[in-house]
Each structure stands twice: as structure tokens, then as C-alpha cells.
Amino acid sequence: MQTTTYHPEWQTKRVNFILEKYPEEFWKGKTLLELGSHNGVIGEFFRTIGADVLSVEGRSENVNSIRERFPHLTVIEGNLDTPNWEYGDFDIIINFGLLYHLEHYHKEHLENCILHSDLMFLESVIFDSAQAELHRSEERYGNDQSLSGIGMVPSTKFVEDILKQNYVGFT
Length: 171
Hints:
- By secondary structure, the protein is of the alpha/beta class.
- It has helices spanning 8-21, 24-27, 41-48, 60-69, 106-115, 156-166, and strands at 31-35, 52-57, 74-77, 90-96, 117-123, 134-138, 150-154.
- It has a 5-stranded parallel β-sheet with strand order 3-2-1-4-5. A two-stranded antiparallel sheet has the order 6-7.
- The N and C termini lie far apart (34 Å).
């Protein structure tokens, strides 16, 4: 995996976790959508082991940086805080650290991911609550923060309810 100064241990651990469940040979020929790709390191890694990767990133400066650093990785700029879906269907979606940076469309975002993939890896900041709720979080400006400056942190119940409503047999 390419080196990075942006949370290198976090990115390496996530990739290694995935590879423990789905080894390198699994990825050959798979279509992969990486959402909120920030620096492109994770998407580029899976591209190098055979996946056909599309990375979607909300900040133009990050998109430009990814294109410069990884010219063979397909990356587009897109605001993912929308109920609309224009990316198509994928074998796999990697959705790391994005959900809590959305201000408005958490439910629709998760439902779109579920509807348009066979497998999703989801990681987000959430808080433990028996209530399905979202808590507002004002974010400092940064190239890894919300596009609007406002994030909404979902509760475990909020995320679980969406998964239960959209996955048959989810418990």
C-alpha cells in the first residue's frame, strides 16, 4: 500500500481487516466504489490488486491531488450529501469515515449504498443510543471534514434501523 501521512495506521489496519476477510484474489475484476476517498490511498491499493475502482471525493483540491498522485485511479468530484444516486451499481462499496460528515441525507445515503452494491464496508463515528437519532456536530474546516461545516453523528439505533429495513434477515 502507498505510504501516506494521513492516519497511516488507520488506513493500513482497515485494508488489512478487509484482506483478512476477502484475500487479494477475490478483488480481481470486482467493481469497487470508494466514497469520500480523501487521498485515494485505499482505492489505489484495491486497484493495484485487480479491482475496477471509482473514487468519489467531495473536495476539488483532494480530487486534484489524487489525480496527480494516482493517475491510473478513476476519481470524480461529487457531493455525497444528496438523496440522488448517479454512480451506478458496484460489487463493493467502501464507505469509511463519511457518514458522520453528512448534514442532511444519512438515511438516503445508506439506502443508496445498500441498493447499489452487493457488499459494503461501512465505518463511521456513531454514538450508542437506543433511540434512532442524529446529533449535530459543527466541524472545523479541513480537507477531511464536512463540505458544509456541519456534520450529523448518527446513533447505533439509527444505523441499525436502516440496515434492518433494507437487508432481509439482518438482526
